[in-house]
Amino acid sequence: MVAESFLTTMRSEGHEVDFAIHNAGGVRCSLNPGPVSKADIAGKLLPFAVPIGVYKLKGKYIKPTLEGAIDNALDPKHRNREFPI
After folding, report:
1. What local confidence, expressed as pLDDT, does residue 79 receive?
2. Rounded CA gap, 47 and 29, in Å?
């Protein structure tokens, strides 16, 4: 839901965006069904100020980057409370 909201926001601002990702460790809670306020998002779900950016990447770099992030997140010697993307 977080990455989807980033994607929607950037597209609505006129950016040509194919996908969005966010560090899962930055998402701090689940939300219950029902209305969601800005305070719920800023105070609970995403308590850290994270700028949203748009980057141009060559496709050949995307897969190894994501695989590396997952490998590091799942490898006990590299873990520091991170979660896969």
Report:
1. 57
2. 10
Closest CA to 19 of 33, 28, 8, 27: 8
Q: How far apart are CA 60 and CA 67, in angstroms?
A: 12
pTM of the model: 0.69
- C-alpha angle 9-15-7 in degrees, rounded to nearest 5: 35
Query: Domain-by-domain residue ranges, the chain?
Result: 2-54, 57-85
**Pair 45, 31: CB distance under 8 Å:** yes
pLDDT for 16-37, tens place per residue? 999 998 876 788 888 889 998 9
Structure token digits, residue 67? 């695989």
